[in-house]
Amino acid sequence: MEQAGQELQDLREEVAETTKEIITLVAKRIELAKRIGQVKSRDSLPIDNERVEEALLQEVILECKQLGLDQRLGTKILSTLLAESKKAQRAQGSAKAQPLITPMVMMAKATEIEKTGRKLIRLDVGEPDFHPPKAVLDAVSEALYSYKTYYTVGRGIPELISALRNYLAKKYGYADAAENQLVVTPGGRFAVYSAVATVASEGDSVVVIEPNWPAYKEGLEYIGAKAITLRTTLEDEWQPSPESVKAAIKPNTKAIVLSYPANPTGKIMDKVTFKEIVGIADDAGLTVVSDEIYNDYAYKPCPTILANLPKKYILTSSFSKGWSMTGFRVGYSLAPAETSARMLKILGLMITCVPEFIQRGAVKALGCEEEVSRNSRVMKERIDATTAELKKIDALELLKPEGAIYAWAQAKDPKFDSAAFAMELLEKKGVTISPGTGFGDYPRCFRMSLGQPQESLTAGVRKIGEMLA
User: Fold this and answer.
1) Measuring CA to CA, which residue among 342, 360, 80, 149 is closest to residue 72?
2) Beta strands 226-231 and 205-210, pairing class
3) Looking at the structure, do residues 266 and 334 belong to the same domain, yes or no?
4) How far apart are CA 384 and CA 376, in angstroms?
5) Domain identity same for 315 and 356
6) In angstroms, rounded to a whole number, what is the distance separating the alpha carbons of residues 37 and 87?
7) Whether residue 246 is found in the same domain as residue 169
8) CB of 359 within 8 A of CB of 160?
9) Domain residues for 385?
10) Which of 66, 111, 225, 287 is a good FRET partner for 167, with 20 to 30 A between their CA atoms?
């Protein structure tokens, strides 16, 4: 026993010395990163360098193989080191980086201004102005007065799970959804977060096609994973090629996010390309996360993973848009049973369950087809009218949205700064928009939400035209 005790003590001392050596090397690495940051600041070079990062990733993976070390541990350590290096490099900049103006930031700023009594034309927030179906309100009220106010099972009440299965069968012809594949979530945003948190972890990467809703990248950054952003342009009609998707996949890539109709562009990917990308994901062993929240606002055939089922998949959606139930915070996910169980674990840990009275309203919503059709029809009219107004502005160019609830315009001036323009437009004209920099590297673009009556949309567009004249 005494000999074993001494052996353990010696090993522990060696572990302590090795740990100190690692910390010393980390400090040296950060000091090198600071010096690199000084050079980049001096020569006005960007902090991020994808080519260098990818080469380093390949070296780490090779080293892990040679040492018999778990590759995911290696990439996790690299992810932490890269994050600290970038933090150190940014600190060497001569000026602080301007805060990113995301749609949520713009929404908060506009709300504060409205509290002062100033009237604004709100084209920033992605929220339809339609009322929820009356049947939903009645069901929620009845559930409250019937004391449906206690915990439920985390997955969702049986009535809603059953209604969702029937809905998917009727709308998409998908009759294979099992009870253990569905999870009722507090809004589509949580469904998206739990999806990326289930398929990726620190050190992993996920392909995200841009421009896109920032929540995908934000969720990945929060868990320490990296978003591989695949940039699209107006010239290619905001659609990536299958070849570019294949080239974006790295050794540590775990998933690809597809979201059509797209926010902010309103683009609907053609079915052939969609199917090819799903095939590429299958070949690479990736999970396809398909956010289909805007499917009710599709004005041409829109692909769904339910018709092109990958080997690994997660479908996310919500009651927020089609039924105009944004404040109810209720959505859902569909995935293979094992994946669904992991998502359910995240929900149980953080939320417990969606309130039963809200779920009762969601059950009724699934039967309100007439209201959803009406909302979709009105939004199509707004897209047509607003696009026609935007095309009158010589300084702008755009692709007419094929779906969703937005218009995405691009300035012809290559030096246009949409963030500065958004602030000036708000100050001088009382109109809010979302700068393109909130959706990726798109300083020339901005998003207009069409969740307002047409007269407000037309007035807002004309004020934009006045500013750009």
Assistant:
1) 80
2) parallel
3) yes
4) 12
5) yes
6) 9
7) yes
8) yes
9) 103-127+371-468
10) 287
Tell me whether residue 74 is in a domain. yes
- Residues near 286 by beta carbon (within 8 Å), at least 6 away in sequence: 207, 249, 253, 254, 255, 256, 312
Residue 267 in contact with residue 282, Cβ under 8 Å? Answer: no
pLDDT for 104 beyond 80 = no
* Per-residue pLDDT, 43: 83
253 shares its domain with 289: yes
Question: CA-based Rg of the chain, rounded to a whole angstrom?
Answer: 25
Of 367, 401, 421, which residue constitutes the final position of a domain? 367
HSE, CB side, 13 Å, CA atoms: give it for residue 64: 18
Q: What is the C-alpha separation between 440 and 81, in angstroms, rounded?
A: 24
Q: What is the rounded CA–CA span in Å between residue 313 and residue 277?
A: 13
What pLDDT is recorded for position 53?
A: 87
We report the CATH number of the domain holding residue 211 as 3.40.640.10
Q: Supply the CATH number for residue 422's domain.
A: 3.90.1150.10
Phi/psi for 259 (5° steps) reads -150, 100
What is the count of structural domains for the chain? 3
Model pTM score: 0.89
* Rounded Cα distance, 288 and 295, in Å: 17
Residue 9 within a domain: no
The number of beta carbons lying within 10 Å of the beta carbon of residue 153 is 14
Percent of the chain exceeding pLDDT 90 equals 80
Query: Is residue 306 one of the residues assigned to a domain?
Result: yes
Q: Is residue 121 part of a domain?
A: yes
pLDDT classification of 90: cutoffs 50, 70, 90: confident
